[in-house]
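Work Package 4 report. The design task specified in the project plan requires that, given a folded chain encoded as structure tokens, an amino acid be chosen for each position. We show below one input record used in the internal validation round.
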């Protein structure tokens, strides 16, 4: 199964499975980390907005999750299925985004983390993986985009911004990863003003994410419009709409996806 299915999985079942992927052993650090992460997301993420104020008091638990994620060996990772690897990398990416934000919270944008002279936080070598340190940029560019031809990963990772794909309310897990990112795609496409599709006028206003990573979507479906036609829910009428759509792009809003803006 892949993102073409756009199947929605029962939320209760996914919540149970989230703490079990890729392994269900109670002594497995990954299972333990996913269990903690699942509880944090369930209690501090709603409709894609994050309760950073509440999470700030639980930074130790996020750090513990990252420590356990960092203990996973490459030899173990290599034995996993592709969706298990993608779930692990997506969760790792999103957890480090939360850490970067919480380390400097309150702030108005992740771009302002670390102060004026700290550079782009996505380029900081703060990510611990397989015994070395790297950046979120490298996790996204090399570990996700280069190594796996799955454009749906762009809906799985959240940059902590209002215009980024929403942070999911549960961890990703290998068994249902493709269903989860299919649901993420549906949710993201339905969010205005970032994405607006007018079938009657055959116009698409899309997130600049589709422009930034156009080659990924084109490789999968020949172009951005073709990709949208594939992943859009059938009831939207996009898939079989006659003629070509005009495609333009919205502005990316880097303001923090904070559930409590102005109440720091």
């Amino acid at each position: 199964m892949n993102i073409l299915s756009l199947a929605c999985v029962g939320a209760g079942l996914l919540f149970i499975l989230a703490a079990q992927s890729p392994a269900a052993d109670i002594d497995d650090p990954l299972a333990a980390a996913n269990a903690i992460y699942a509880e944090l997301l369930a209690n501090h993420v709603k409709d894609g907005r994050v309760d950073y104020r509440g999470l700030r008091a639980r930074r130790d638990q996020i750090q513990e999750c990252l420590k356990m994620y960092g203990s996973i060996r490459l030899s173990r990772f290599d034995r996993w299925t592709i969706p298990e690897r993608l779930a692990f990398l997506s969760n790792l990416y999103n957890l480090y985004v939360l850490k970067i934000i919480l380390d400097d919270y309150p702030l108005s944008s992740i771009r302002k983390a670390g102060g004026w002279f700290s550079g782009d936080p996505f380029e900081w070598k703060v990510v611990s993986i397989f015994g070395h340190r790297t950046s979120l940029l490298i996790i996204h560019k090399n570990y996700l985009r280069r190594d796996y031809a799955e454009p749906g990963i762009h809906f799985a990772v959240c940059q902590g911004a209002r215009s980024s794909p929403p942070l999911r309310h549960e961890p990703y897990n290998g068994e249902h990863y493709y269903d989860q990112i299919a649901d993420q795609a549906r949710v993201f496409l339905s969010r205005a003003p970032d994405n607006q599709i007018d079938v009657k006028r055959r116009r698409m206003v899309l997130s600049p994410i589709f422009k930034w990573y156009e080659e990924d979507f084109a490789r999968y479906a020949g172009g951005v419009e073709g990709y949208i036609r594939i992943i859009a829910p059938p009831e939207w009428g996009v898939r079989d709409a006659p003629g070509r759509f005009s495609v333009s792009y919205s502005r990316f809003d880097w303001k923090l996806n904070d559930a409590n803006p102005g109440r720091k």
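The mean pLDDT is 90. Validation will be extended to a larger panel in the next phase.
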